[in-house]
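Q: Give me the 3D complex with glycine.
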Amino acid sequence: MKKITVKASKIYDITIGAGILDQAGLIMSQTAGISCNAVRTGKTAAVITDDNVSRLYEKRLVDSLSANGYRAVSYVFPNGESSKNTGTFISILNFLAEKQLSRADIVVALGGGVTGDLAGFAAACYLRGIHFVQIPTTLLSIVDSSVGGKTAVNLASGKNLAGAFYQPDAVICDVTLLSTLSDDVFRDGCAEIIKTGVIADRVLFESLKEPVKNHLEEVIIRCIEIKRDVVAEDEFETGVRKFLNFGHTAGHAIELLSGYLISHGHAVAAGMAIAARMAVVLGICDTNCLKDILQMLQLYGLPENSVYSAGDIARVCLSDKKREGDSITMILPVETGKCVLRNIPVNDLEKVIQSGLEITL
Ligand code: GLY
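A: Here is the predicted complex, encoded as structure tokens.
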């Protein structure tokens, strides 16, 4: 079992290990603030999960919570990005109120990024904030979304447009849960791992030439360490955290344009390829860097382009959070392991995205 401590506005541990879902109640009972201590036993843990994950893992979690003195209640919603909306969010708040959770109680997100984002935002808003634990069950949520406190729901105009920075009290990553992921869902996580390599660690990037499944735990730990450092330096994304959005500007637009049929990791992969081509056209990186990124995406069966037009992608990008007044911040690679922020004037965006869709090697 490995522990990585995040030092943000809240200090918390990420515990990584094999089979630790069955110890989730024990880990929580040993965590300050959320333990069932002598003063008040029987805290309520509200497990928020989707129907797929519920079938696979909810009972094991509930058993572990009950064995450690928690009163477990569960809210199950239909799986998929289309559930990440204000309707589900309000239903979760009503569920917490009906079950009479107090500020001493805990919301436990059991699932992937959608579950963590929804449950985390509900935990941030209910009673102006109650305790929150993340138990990520996908590769993407282990290496990215469960760490760092970003929570949100989608609005009709765009992805993650309503949300909060709200750090969890604990993150519990059981790597054996990844064995039930479909290839496509596993690949979503690979896209975020490739992203982490491109923005921060050339050695990590190069190591991905060996199939990630051969050294998965090591890669997971490296990605979480990088994210820990970024979040400790810039929790509220005024600086260095922006780099974690590499591939996400066009990626979020592609997700929305597809009606969320293209999943987050696949859309981010296309977004990274678009950004890398832009970087070549803008003279920020050379074609070798672009080739390296495209080859890595190919190796993991991820898309390198999008069927949507530059005009459509640009239009959706304009309602993205990364827009600031008359410009939008793009994260562009200089070389693998290093990116820069570039403000693209809104009026040039379509033309620049067009270059990101077009150039061939
Ligand atoms: N997923 C990007 C971030 O946490 O900042």
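A quick observation: The CA atoms of residues 323 and 329 lie 6 Å apart.
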